[in-house]
Amino acid sequence: MSQPPNPQFQQAAMPGCWWHPNRPTGLSCSRCERPACPDCLREAAVGFQCTDCVQAGRQQDRVQQKQYRDAGYGSRTLAGAQPARTAVVTPVLLALNVLIFFITVAQSGSLANNNFSELFQYGQLWNPATLAGDEWWRILTSGFLQYGLLHIASNAFSLWFVGRPLETALGRVPFTVLYFVSLLGGSVANLVFSDLDAVPVVGASGAIFGLIGAYTVIVIKLRLNPTWLLVILGLNVFITFQVPGISILGHAGGFVAGLLTTFALLYAPDKNRLKWQLGGIAIVVVAMIGLVVWKDSQTISASCELATSRGVPSYACYPE
To answer: Which ranges does the record mark as transmembrane (predicted)?
Structure first.
């Protein structure tokens, strides 16, 4: 005579895996508690989690990290901006300078005398046209014009060599602001501290000297070895004073503007850093604009036009 099995020793049937129902398992996810076979579990910080929970956790971590960065925390550059792995602004500025140079070459039909082009005549920083003729765009456009092959080659090399590491150190937006404020500083120095009949000025070297000024502040701020900076600065100062036709005022103005801009970026208090940075840079820009307005108030008005003599364009201004 047979007896029914003792319930005490009867084994309960194990549930099937949530993803593989035909696989009985005694394991489960420590997060969602669904039954899972060993193939569907991954080791986590606490216990084992199923593949769905692992993926959901990673997505949640990415969202939280983004919110953390957007709130102003996490990995930041020296200027408090989001870090960039590669330089983007520097190659764009370099390409823009090279493109404009070859446009002037095409218009003039000469590599060495590309200043005899309409774009060059309209864009160079010429005091009578800028101050007396109120052609204020020249303050910006002159920084993207280069005179001759040697000029574009040297400025392109300097921008590439100095700009890329500085862009990754500061961040793309602070670097862009630094470049254009430095460019403005070089143009303003030429307008304000030179005579009305001074020779026209072009070139990106004012902005590049501003980048060197930024390195000066970084070396002081981080207490770095200044040897490399002194070599670069000394070489550029030597070229500025020894090579004829170099704008000393443009280099000095760009350097000072870049130095002050970087000081505002790096020494702003952590609390409300962005507001302090914008306020400091605004003071520098407004001060430069004030100098230009003061200089303009002392300059007579003139009407300017582009004339062509024997196929060569030239700009002329006549007092009103």
So the answer is: 86-106, 144-163, 175-193, 199-220, 227-246, 276-294
